[in-house]
């Protein structure tokens, strides 16, 4: 299973390993640099089926920190294009980008809000800060909401031009889209708040706008938090209901993570702790899903796929430790996987 190709639109992933999006906090003015070139490039040499570039701000306020990646201008897209080209011409990996807006969780460093003079005023669906000691975010007007949707659309256009194979919309971890989804962070009384249908509207309008920029050669994923572990908050039933609707809006895969919107929420963490959420969304909404969270072993990953709990395996911290996990797993399992031709002498040990 791990080495069985899978197709999303015309995009074929050679295996089911995905480098999960991970902020590296290493940009100036949102620009990718040599670090990112080596960082993402090396995972392509490790045989990873899909590399997902870190949360990338669709506008300056969409970043979590001043050092986060951005794609709100052409210069940023050009730097990213260099990485995309390397991956495409030197490996069999596909490469995607996670488009994000931090909303009320922006303007921070090391998870602590920084003063407005060093950062910026944050924005959100409602005047509720993530933590009570933080500044009250500015509430988006309907006009602002439409402008944010356009920011995602413009970012998608740049990403397509840069050659990315997959666009992922970051709807998880308490960032702007998630802030709209949750009744605990969204108490609006207009058409973007209140009922489930109203709270998911922002995401659906982003999905539709982004899809206008895509074609059969670029697929669309959405990352969600399956639950936010809070009473009366966004929960797994909501996620299943949302996933069914996302499927109707031409979303190719739901990447199921969890948490991030409620400060202090208790998260039961264990090996594969979010896999049950992926499994439920996959089975009940009949969509393709990605599983993520404390997946560190080849056997464990294979087991998740065999049980039908997910279609893709997103790995984050383990692929930082081991950029070659995909190729290493193929050696262990006797499967085929890209391995740089320059390294062929290392295919046989001794
Ligand atoms: C350094 C770091 C940065 C992260 N940045 C992002 C991000 O940009 N977007 C995102 O959706 N998740 C982000 N995450 C979460 C990971 O993608 C993943 O969901 C989480 O780490 C659980 O997977 P793991 O147990 O394999 O690390 C980040 C995680 C780490 C460790």
Description:
This is Oxidoreductase. Keywords: Flavoprotein, FMN, NADP, Oxidoreductase. With 350 residues, the chain is of the alpha/beta class. It has a single domain, classed as TIM Barrel (Alpha-Beta Barrel). The protein is 34% helix and 17% strand. The strands form four sheets. Strands 3-4-6-11-12-13-14-15 form an eight-stranded parallel barrel, surrounded by seven helices. It has a two-stranded antiparallel ribbon with strand order 1-2. Strand 12 (219-225), helix 7 (236-248) and strand 13 (253-257) form a beta-alpha-beta unit. The model has no long low-confidence stretch (mean pLDDT 97). The structure holds flavin mononucleotide (FMN).
